[in-house]
Fold each of these.
Amino acid sequence: MTARTLFEKLWQAHEVVPETVDTPAVLYVDLHLTHEVTSPQAFATLRERGLTVRRPELTVATLDHSTPTDRDQLFGKVPIRMESAARQIREFESNCAEFGIELLGLTHEQRGIVHIIGPELGLTQPGKTIVCGDSHTSTHGAFGALAFGIGTTEVGHVLATQCLLQRKPRTLAVNVEGELGRGVTAKDLVLSIIHQLGVGGGTGSVIEYRGSTIRRLSMEQRMTVCNMSIEAGARAGLVAPDETTYAYLEGRPRAPKGTAFERAVAAWRKLPTDPGAGFDREIVIDAAGIAPMITYGTNPGMSVPITGTVPVRSGDGVHAKALEYMGLTAGQPMLGQKVEFVFLGSCTNARLSDLREAAGVLGGHKVATGVRFIVVPGSQQIKRAAEAEGLDRVFIDAGAEWRESGCSMCLGMNGDVVTRGAYCVSTSNRNFEGRQGVGARTLLASPITAAASAIAGRIADPRGFLA
Amino acid sequence: MDPIRTIRSRTVAMPRANIDTDQIMPARFLTTTTRAGLGEHLFADWRYDAAGRPIAEFALNRPDAAGCQILVAGRNFGCGSSREHAPWGLYDYGFRAVISTEIADIFRSNALKNGLVPVLVDEASHAALLARPGAEVSIDLERSSLTLPDGSEVRFPIEPFARYCLLNGIDQTSYLLSKQAAIADYERRMQA
Ligand code: SF4
């Protein structure tokens, strides 16, 4: 047998029909996740064409994107304020019911952001192909699953046939070696990788994150890294499964149990890239050289170490436009820039470990006056777990808002928005113009940088707040 | 789907690099449950000011942009969110092709399924197009070629199956549905 990469093994195991010069491969999908925003037109197409869902048991639905994070609206005490969102949610509920799809609905205890609940429930497993009408599906690659975002037409393809038409992407190995410094998180690592690759650097590729640094990361940290693969343009991100992966999955409600789990682990052990297998491209990253990072511009590649200054790039129109939008001046230090909002949430950084780390920084401190700090757990389960440890009290006592789970302020479509012109230190994944609300100015950073900045009311170095 | 063979039109130029799908179709318009009418919100935050008035300098608001079917955009067009609302909006507005030096994967895949032709060109052709916004160009899908304003012709790469579907007005869903036997076979193999 020739040496194969993890990606090649995943790909070949799911080829229903291999690709030819004239036709793409027909690729089988093991798990399809879906939410209210990118599916309505797919269900409409099924209805128009009189089609049924081929394997309804392989699709799991949840509500997260346009779903309110306000308790009263979520639990129906008061109507959902955004009428269009309310309509979209109702339509999704009836679509799921009509086509026999399991929905973790508004009041379900396991509801949450789609990329958080898949792993949390143990639905996400090594060796699977996983798709969702959402670009951050790359998150699930942290388990050694081939996971990527698709469009709505493709959502329809999966519903109707459980398959997709795909061209085989290229492979890119990102080798990370060395120790991450104190106060340097998985978020800083991935921001640094995107900075080095560029926002289009991964186009056409599946990234496999490798090396000693990656091996030492927890599953939650690996998810943060894989989550942002798409911000470098990559189709998917992968981390080979190992003991960390199996330990995370064991006992999860939808993971195999008992001897079935043993058998599954035995199969998963065969997935990692064989020694000697080649990638189309490889890069090496020195973990020790990475500092806490923060973005200054309008795409996730525009970042600097937090102690750095806004880069000077005369004659670069894109750079100038970004600075104009951000209201920042070339050469100015990032530290000390005043902020009005802090958002701790999203599928990048709203897991229990993220909340714990941020709460650790908050300690007994108060959120600075003039700052609105909103904390949105990634799922209802995370919310309850955090409450059981008293993390909600830490946030609330500091003056932060403690919300129900959802995408919230990651994207301005559920009522949680940053006001025009205001700065927001955000643990989410996109600092595009208007992403968090019309005219919002997003500064992407880690949960501990977010917490430190909430206390200071300005961009602050988290290392000054660590015990 | 209607077959597409040639597209002949003047161009609109948006030279900025990394135009993401949040710009093409801001998230607040994604609560729609149909494809219709999204052209109205295309590039909403660049097209209209806070009071909802058109911003005169924006490319689409210039008088000569009316009726243009071809958008020439900066590198890495369509990056970010997978929202198909972006190509739906472009198509609904009247665009039939997007030309750039690099087009993001998911956007390109979505565009091809909606009659919006993604055209990849080299830096020199791109520069020539950006230098003459509003000039007439033509795209011949059969030959995968683009005729520049100076009359010269460049070939562009396009996934052959998607091109075949566009040329013949075949939708990819029907093709996948025709593979049901192979799919059932795969499912049986996996269960064994
Ligand atoms: S949290 Fe943000 S990035 Fe993640 S799925 Fe929701 S909207 Fe998308």
Note: Chain A touches chain B through 66 residues (CB under 8 Å).
Amino acid sequence: MSDYSTHVLVCGGTGCKASEGEEIRNRFNALIREYSLDDEVQVVTTGCFGFCEMGPIVKLLPDKTFYVRVSASDVDEIIREHIVKGRPVERLLYRDPVTGSIVRDSHKMDFYKKQVRVALRNCGFIDPENVEEYIARDGYQALAKCLSEMTPAEVVNEIKKSGLRGRGGGGFPTGLKWEITAKVPGDVKYAVCNADEGDPGAFMDRSILEGDPHSVIEAMAINGYCTGASNGLVYIRAEYPLAITRLKIAIDQARELGLLGKNILGTGFDFDIELRYGAGAFVCGEETALIHSMEGCRGEPTFKPPFPSEEGFLGKPTNVNNVETYANIPVIINKGAEWFASIGTEKSKGTKVFALAGKINNVGLIEVPMGTTLREVIYDIGGGIRGGKKFKAVQTGGPSGGMLTADFLDIPIDYDNLIAAGSMMGSGGMIVMDEDD
Amino acid sequence: MNKITSLSDLKQLREDIQSKIKLRERSDFSDVLVQIKVGMATCGIASGAKETMNVLIEEAERQAIDVVVTQTGCMGFCYAEPTVEVTIPGRDPIVFGHVDKAKAREIIEKYLIQGKLVDGIIPVEFKTIHD
């Protein structure tokens, strides 16, 4: 038999890692050897499951058992009782805070029920340090499809048709940005990924890079194919060490497989990626400031035009997209623009990842279709306000955004509604305040 | 690892390694798939439940049918170990007793593929305190 009969998924996001995630994995591995279960049980370190409030999280498949707040000392019991005897360890299962009953399958938890995972499709499911698992989930198929079956203009059209808008905050139509960069003449162009996540309480981009780095690499290469860029640059905060490590591992693996480098998939297309580190200045998340910082200049914004698409890094045409925007690209190519456009509202298509923080019961990382209301996010998914207190406001959009009070709880979240309400989408940080704040 | 030099190379590689995460993909959405639970308490294991489970997994794989095979605790039919519960989506679960390797193959072949019942069904008419 070639396959393992049980997969143990241990969360390896920064949050769970900080609270014993690594010890948990090591203990699993040690005990699996001790019980001679090496051929039957596979331990996988994954990216963030999102339910950070309940971390560290350990998920067992195919038993669909979602263990919460696991510590290294619980591992013996999970192995002895669950894996050897098939009896789940009840005290580590999630209890619905309202009904008090045990919910074993994460899909049935209120936190997950309303979520639709597109950008986070692989987070908490695959080992981000293993390119094979990404490929097994259709990874690099989109790049291969673009390179061998589509012209750059067709790819740009597909992105335009999908209605995808920039997930970093502004919401500029992504396909249009790509088209502009593609049309500017030039031998040297750049594909830049903005991983300078700085909104308060935000950790969407970090989690994507930690949990599914290949999706960003693949999308950047697709962008390079469309615009004619053969150089990719990821501007990432130095304070994201785990994301940097995983991204580096992923880039090395992609190079080794020939998915980055010269003559990718025998199509004559060249593309490679380098990292540039940011020192954590909030303003460098703005694309012109980001470009100046990468050039070694002072990280200050400059007036647009010229837009980076026309005159960007070192004066060359440069496409700058945020991490989450890129993470959506391979899915759009694989599943089609119509599929993507079927999710969301009229002018905001697809899903949006949010980081829930502050006085909310379920602190964590979520992804919902555009058009979900703030009430659904805060009360259904977020489990309401801590200590049963009253909701006062939620801060969205970071420093450029604003506070939304209880009057706005029922507006469907999309770019235009949030602006009309006096805030903005921003990159997706949501800080919830209660009556005492 | 060897370099991937074409789209067909990539597709081949994906085929080759898909089995590594198939178990995860299938089971995470198992409400729509056939579920087989093998009783793996001491009595079950002693009567060969592990071998039965392996045969079920291998046979389902060979016949290319999507099933999720999991282990469970003692179902209480210690006189009929190994016991196996099969749930086809939308139908009531059926428990089979004395499932040795041959019986396991028969269940896959007859019940899952041809839709015919096979001997060895344990009538289950009990209710639990949850019902």
Note: The radius of gyration of chain A is 22 Å.
